[in-house]
Amino acid sequence: MYQEHAQRILDLLHKNPTRGVITAQEAAHALSLLEGEVAASKLHPETDVEHDVHTHEQEEGESTEHAVMQRVGFAARAFPLLEMLRSAKQENESIIWGI
Hints:
two-stranded antiparallel sheet, two-stranded antiparallel ribbon, 4 helices
């Protein structure tokens, strides 16, 4: 995930996008916060959607200028971290990045 996309998620969790850890003890609280933000974002999907040149589908032989743009909302961006948090909580493990 690009840093500019992760920023909103990590700001919510008070974490640095460059380097950090969500400890096993923090996982349940982080999961709760993130699930709440995802639920809130789904209430207003038209304001949550981001246009992102990096998230387009490109047909074979098609240039990026002509690729179909996709809308990528907060819930889609947060999904991988939600899955990691659920696993970290269940397995009592920490999530570490940027080392």
